Each structure stands twice: as structure tokens, then as C-alpha cells.
Amino acid sequence: MNSHIGPPRVTALEAKSLAQWIAFSPFIFQATVVMRDRGLLASVDAAGEAGIDAELLATQTGLSRYGVGVLLDFSVDIGLIDQVGDRYTLAKTGYFILNDEMTKVNMDFTRDVCYEALASLDDSLSDGKPRGLVALGDWENLYDGLTSLPGPASESWFRFDHFYSDRVFEEFLTIVFSSEVNEILDVGGNTGRWAKKCFAHDPNVKVTIMDLSQQLEVAAKDIKAAGYSERFNSYAFDVLRDDGAYYKGADVIWMSQFLDCFSEQEILKILSHAVEVMNQDTVLYIIELFWDRQKYDAARFSLNATSLYFTCVANGKSRMYHSETLRALIDQSGLVVEQDTDD
Amino acid sequence: MNSHIGPPRVTALEAKSLAQWIAFSPFIFQATVVMRDRGLLASVDAAGEAGIDAELLATQTGLSRYGVGVLLDFSVDIGLIDQVGDRYTLAKTGYFILNDEMTKVNMDFTRDVCYEALASLDDSLSDGKPRGLVALGDWENLYDGLTSLPGPASESWFRFDHFYSDRVFEEFLTIVFSSEVNEILDVGGNTGRWAKKCFAHDPNVKVTIMDLSQQLEVAAKDIKAAGYSERFNSYAFDVLRDDGAYYKGADVIWMSQFLDCFSEQEILKILSHAVEVMNQDTVLYIIELFWDRQKYDAARFSLNATSLYFTCVANGKSRMYHSETLRALIDQSGLVVEQDTDD
Q: No. of H helices and E strands in chain A?
């Protein structure tokens, strides 16, 4: 890796502007959230190319003329809307804020799970603990509190988590079931969404989810509701425990967006323990998003931002990894990589 | 005003990236603060063109290798630093974050005064009250609490306030004292910095500060310490009160970055009451930053961001104005504009 990476070169004047953009970025964030949630972007969008003026926007949204005024003036500066004379039209960035599902999921996650917690980033880096988590509840790490997160945080966390996992499930079904599979061990199976996909895809496959006991309750309930209880098995186990053993007997072990929740040292331990319950024919799948493997700058940027969520909200020591880092840990654990596929 | 204003046109792909940048902007803000305050940017800067690697940065800053890693990867994405191989050098935006006084003042103000409060922007817009102020203390508006703000907020607020007022004082001394002046009425004189400039500039001039009583105490103390007590006069008055009268007798009335703290209706009242104590020869100076009068996009952007601080921290109803808005209020109050100067 010898080439320059990062955003394009900027002039000194542009850099000074960017520095102000960063210095005031919490203003940008909250103003944009309000422009979206109070219906201003939707009203501007509905007005099409003809545009709409501030008076009518105030009437349509129920906000004061003053409130609409400060939001509109700043929104032009940050590129959400365009102004021609006294009329406003939707700009491209505003279009994505309003309509793009990924953007919505990211923004709600930032607001409901991370905004307050991020103020503790410095403290979290000091002692390796997720110091911002206290904004959501009194747990040692986020996973202990996952089933009891307060309202908006819970919804936004799961929407964020599922958005990035669900979209790859279909593709992986084809890969996993290209060979005969009797039983899958889903490590950190969360709410059982992958398990349900497997049950639906193959009428004979069994799935065991190995996870923390409180998560298993949620998964078991959902899977029962979907009518798959008979082929489902719960195995309560904290992969960070040193005593006890992993579930044994599956011919496929599945770790999807799971290892990024742990430190390098922990990942090595998790993989090594997995090796203990594997035989020559067991296949271990590791599905991860690597920031060095992204085609688009925005994707790499989003993954590196997510690392800071792990730092100050989740557990203080995990992150979205560089693929070479994880590759080295896999090698060290004694596993052999048979296939390394980008989607 | 018929031309297009706002940021340059972007492609759809750039707009989608910008939308993610906004969605994750609180991450950008907090990571940048830590990069600055924990000495990472300074260490990268000191390494010059040769750059520095993550290991050495961890040693120099006392942060964990993990902590340095997540910060560096994200900092490359947001343009604070550049990466070549495993070495990091300072990028232009990082240079301004590290060295530019205005950027530092804006960033500290955002962090210490506004960050937490901004989460209440929506509520503030709903009822016209500064709902975020509760993060700093239990006052109806910021001015009531200005002399008792908690530590970092107090320092950052005054540094922000003074940075934008002090830089114009020297220039204005020449203008104000180009005619003979006996007494200046400084309306909303805050900590008395302009008064002290006047005392030092003209050995005969008297200054009366008209402000809330708690502010006057601070100003009086500072002015006494500077040895100007004999020519100084305190006049305690809340300009929003309907009873009582403004101080009468000054030949110059001075309102510097004062009117932006009020709603349009209040400004009209303030100006009209000022007219009552003026005679044919009294000169009223109004110094304001207007977002439509800025040469640079970044300046307009900063002023429109500051409006949202007024919305959710200061008093819920004031803002940085368009010059035409203030001009209309001046005309309505019966005042005549003799001179309208951009700096």
C-alpha cells in the first residue's frame, strides 16, 4: 500500500472552509435532522422545480417563520436546498437525506445511539471502556444492554445492524448451500434473522445459535413465531469466557459481522476456540466489512466512523478492521483460508 | 437577489457521499477534537514531510495503539491527515484545525456551549424557547446565566464572543473618534472591553455601559482594575423592559453585536427607545455581522450556524440577520442611516 489515500487535495482556502465545516458540524447534523423530520425537505421536494417560499413552508410544516428562516438559510449553505430569489428547491444532497434508506439508517443511528455518547470519545480512548454508553444505560458493554436499550436507541440500533447484514443474506445462502449442510452454528446470532433465512431456504437444515442468554430469548421467540422451533437450538455461551466449550456438531460455523465486535486479542481467542470444535470437513464462514476493501470513499468513511461507535458506545476496544489485520489473526489461529471473496 | 447562492453543484455520487458525511458528522467533530486535544495533529505536524507512524504516535501521545489506529484511519477519510504507506503527514485541513485561531474558537464554542444543547433544536423550534440551555444551567435565557456558566462553557463562550468583537475594535476607534466625543453609551457592554479601548484611546471620553446588573458588576470590576473607574458609569437596565428609560446624555450610542441577540420585534422596540434619548446630534452606531455581506462562503456558513445557537441555547428567537431585515427595522424606528460600511 504505497499510494496516497484519502480525500482529494484541496486549496488552502477550501481547507479553511472545511475546518469551519468540521468545527460547526454538530450544527449541520441537527439542522439536517430537523429539516428531514419536520417535513421541510419533503415540502421543498413536493414543490418541484418551481420551488416554494419560506412563508408557505412555515404554513405547511407548522413551524414559526423565524424557525423556518434560520433552517433554510443554513440549509442553503450546507447544500441541502438551493435558493433562487425567495424560492427554495431540493438539492441533490437533500434528495439523499430525504430518500436514501442507508442515509436515514446512518443518521438515526448517529442521533439515537451515538450523539450524546460521542462526547465521551476522549474518556473512552483513555481507559479502553465505552464511556459514552452511560447515555443509554448502566451496562459494562452494549451487548449486555442490547435487549433493554431505550426506545429510539433500540429501534435505530437494530435498523442499522439489520440494514448492513440483511442485504447480503440472499447472496450468501447460495454460497453456503452449494454443498450439503446439516447444521449451522450461528455464532452471535442476534435476533435470528440469518437462521430464519436458512430455515426457509433449506427445509432440512438445523441451526444452533450461540449467543448471550438474553439475546437467545429474543431469537427463540422470533423463530418460534416463524414456525421453525423444531429445527432450532439455543446454546447460551459468552465467547469471552475462558471456561466451558463452544457448541460442537455443526458442519458450518457462521460468523457474520461478529468479529468486528471484539479486540484483536479476543478475535484470536474466539477463532482458536472455534478450531477446537471443528473437524477436517467443518467450514467456517467469516463475513466482514473491511474499510480497505471498499470501492467508494463514502463506504470506507462510514466504516471508519463506525469504529468510533465501537470505541465509545459498544465496548471500547473493537472496530471495523483492515482485511490484513483479520487475515493475520486467522492465520495465527490455525485456520486455512480457502476462499476470500468480495461481494 | 436573483442569482443562485449556495455551494457548488455536485454529482449524484458526490451528493450521496456528502449525505453520509452529514449523517456521521458528530463522529467527525468529536474525532477531530480528540486529534487536536490529544496532541496527535501536533505530533504529525512536528514530523514534517517525512511523516510518522502509528506506533510512534501512540508512544508520543500516551494513547493505546488501538485508539491511535481508529483515529488515524478516520482522520485520513475526513482529510485531517494524509497517509503514504504506514506514515502520516499533516493535511491542509488538519493544519487549520491545529493552528487557526478562528477554527479553534469555533470548535471550542461548539463543544463546550452547543454540542449537548443542539440535540434540543427541534424542541426549541417548537416553542421558541432555548430548550438546550438546560445543559448549561437553569435560566430562562443565556444572558441571565452569562456570569455563572460552568467552567469550560464560560471560557469558550467569552473567547468566541471576544474573538469576533475585538478584531474590529481598532478600526472602529478611528471612525468613532473622527468627530469630538464626550460620552459614549455602550448598550449591552458585556465585560467592558470596548469601553476600555475607548478610555485608552481618548483620555477625556466618558463611557456609560447599560446592561443587566450582573453583567455590570463584572464590567465595573475589570474597568476598575484597568484604572478607568473615574470616567466610567454603570446603568443597570434590561432593554426588554417596558417601564423605565434608557440612559440619556451620551453623544454616541454604541450597539456592537448586540441587536442579533433579539427578535425582530424586540429590535424595533430597542431602537425606538434609543430614539427617545437621542437628539439631532446623537450618533448611533450599529455593528453587526450580516450573512449576506460576507465575501467567503465559510463566513456566511459560520454566521448561519450561529443563528441556530441563538435558537437552542441563547434565547430561542434571535439570529444573525440578513442586512435588509435590519435595514427595514432601522427605517421603521425612525432612524436615518447616514453611512453603511462593510469592513
A: 16, 9
